[in-house]
């Protein structure tokens, strides 16, 4: 019975750490996903920009 009061704060501490760590992982994953999407859009824009005007000879 004497170990129950000691186990409750440790479980609460672990629960708080796990929830905050999960939130951090989720936030980092969201930021990485947004960065990947923006990079893919930039690459697509750069790939289609020269193809939009292929026949413009500079004399």
Description:
This protein is an all-alpha fold and 59 residues long. The chain has a domain of 26 residues. It contains one helix and no strands. The termini are far apart.
Poorly predicted residue ranges: none
Secondary structure class reads mainly alpha
Number of E-type strands: 0
Q: Could you spell the SSE succession in H and E letters?
A: H
Strand content: under 5%
Number of helices, counting only DSSP H or I runs of 4 residues or more:
1
The main β sheet shows up as: none
Residues in helix, %: over 70%
**What Rg do the Cα atoms give?**
26 Å
Anisotropy-based shape: rod-shaped
Sequence-ordered SSE layout with sheet pairings:
Blueprint: H1 4-52
Task: Summarize the entry for a quick read.
This protein has 59 residues and is an all-alpha fold. It is built from 1 helix and no strands.
Question: What keyword list fits this structure?
Answer:
59 residues, mainly alpha
